[in-house]
Specification:
By secondary structure, this protein is α/β, with parallel strands linked by helices. It has 16 helices and 18 strands. Helix 6 (113-119) packs parallel to helix 7 (150-156), helix 12 runs parallel beside helix 14 (380-390) and helix 12 packs across helix 16 (428-448). It is elongated and about 80 Å long.
Length: 449
């Protein structure tokens, strides 16, 4: 098996045909590889047919390269799974069901099908089943003897589900995703029954857990800041333990380390949280690591340092230092510096964090933790000065007392990250310029209302 599935992370996801068939639900659009009786999947369609033969209600729309073998067209037709078929077929069982009105069918030239899939004319692709001879180290699929419409199936088979209570978020930030078909639940991940409902009504494979409440909230309601981080991860780990989904990517934070005891801070750095927010995150990390050891869950931890960029909250006491400073200068107010301003942070542009997580997904081991950082240590007083210069602010700054429990130094090691993936980090000069530009446009948009 290792010779064929060459990615260690994906090797851990190998399952039986019966298990794979459970990902297919009633009403789904399924695309498969295959062109004539060659290169089409066999075991999973037979397992799916068996579910229907055992009395389960499951009917699908099937798009294959052209006519395919009996294990696919025939088995699904005889079991009643096949409800709609594109673009061409020659199987006797399918033909009889089409003529009897049991299967809706459209015969069309194969050359039109890939473009129609890309344009969404058939609807959203729910599942792609591809017969492959191997999977490369980077997750690339090496198909078997016939490809057909497999590339379109792989590219378009996706469903994104968003869950957010918008505690300090804004639905406008995800509007583009919603318009492209993402499903949005405005609800609370702390409520187990909410999570159960979502998993019951959606076929979910991967969960990215970004749920938390802003660090500043722990100075207002420390108990809730702590419990949110813990309860959400426990809900997810219990659902994963019950096989409701396959893989969990949990977002931790550099705050679990506290102030640097040595620099640069690698993944072995002691955890010494200084706020209730950070303590909750550290507890969540420990919970995940424990569940992985106990139940061999496919779960891992990514630990971004100090994210910045467009769409970060800029309202009220929960706003971050960069959007807050931009907003104050825009409104004609003086920026604030707490304490000496010599506190340092390792800032990473949000787009880089996203790219890193996507790349890491295919190569990170279960239970592993990876720092995501640029080694871009900047003192807060220098940060404020950079923003002021770029916004052509010539005024003075307000100096306030340093907050209790404020981390004094963050300076990350990204050696382990760069040993796994290649990534070109956005220079801070470019990232902060893009960030200021986005917020200025946002503030001007609000002014026009």
């Amino acid at each position: 098996m290792k010779d064929r599935v060459r990615s260690e992370a994906l090797l851990k996801k190998v399952m039986t045909a019966d298990e794979a068939a459970k990902f297919i639900e009633d009403g789904m659009l399924v695309v498969t590889s295959g062109f004539t009786p060659s290169g089409y999947p066999k075991a999973v369609p037979l397992a799916l047919a068996k579910r229907a033969e055992n009395g389960e209600k499951v009917g699908i729309t099937l798009i294959a390269g052209a006519s395919v073998g009996d294990e696919l067209d025939g088995a699904l037709a005889r079991s009643g799974v096949l409800k709609r078929r594109y673009p061409y077929q020659t199987n006797k069982s399918s033909r009889d069901a089409i003529n009897n009105g049991e299967i809706a069918y459209q015969d069309m030239h194969l050359s039109h099908v890939p473009q129609w899939i890309d344009y969404g004319f058939f609807g959203d692709v729910d599942v792609a089943i591809i017969e492959a001879i191997a999977v490369n180290e980077d997750g690339g699929i090496i198909p078997s003897t016939a490809v057909g419409v497999a590339p379109q199936g792989v590219k378009n088979a996706k469903k994104v589900i968003l869950l957010d209570n918008l505690f300090c978020g804004n639905e406008r930030n995800i509007q583009d995703a919603i318009e492209k078909g993402a499903i949005f639940y405005r609800d609370d991940a702390e409520i187990y029954s909410t999570m159960e409902y979502i998993f019951e009504h959606n076929n979910i494979d991967i969960v990215f857990n970004c749920a938390t409440k802003a660090l500043n909230y722990s100075f207002i309601n420390p108990s809730n800041a702590f419990s949110t981080n813990v309860q959400v991860i426990l809900n997810l780990l219990e659902l994963q333990r019950k096989n409701r989904f396959q893989t969990l990517c949990h977002f931790s934070t550099s705050e679990v380390y506290g102030t640097a005891q040595y620099e640069p801070m690698d993944e072995k750095h002691p955890k010494n949280p200084t706020t209730a927010y950070a303590a909750g995150k550290a507890a969540a990390d420990l919970a995940l690591e424990t569940y992985v050891r106990m139940y061999e869950l496919d779960a891992f931890i990514v630990r971004p340092f100090n994210n910045y960029g467009p769409r970060q909250n800029y309202k009220g006491m929960l706003s971050g230092v960069i959007p807050l400073t931009i907003k104050k200068i825009f409104n004609g107010h003086k920026p604030e510096i707490h304490g000496t301003g010599k506190q340092s942070r390792d800032f990473i542009y949000i787009n880089d964090t996203i790219k890193a997580v996507i790349e890491l997904y295919t190569c990170i081991d279960r239970g592993q933790s990876i720092n995501i950082a640029t080694k871009n240590k900047i003192q807060i007083n220098n940060l404020i000065q950079i923003i002021a210069e770029k916004m052509e602010y010539k005024g003075s700054f307000i100096h306030k007392e340093m907050r209790n429990s404020d981390v004094f130094c963050h300076n990350a090691s990204n050696e382990q990250l760069l040993s796994l993936i290649q990534i070109d980090f956005t220079p801070f000069e470019s990232g902060i310029k893009e960030t200021i530009y986005w917020y200025l446009n946002e503030f001007k948009r609000i002014e026009k209302k």
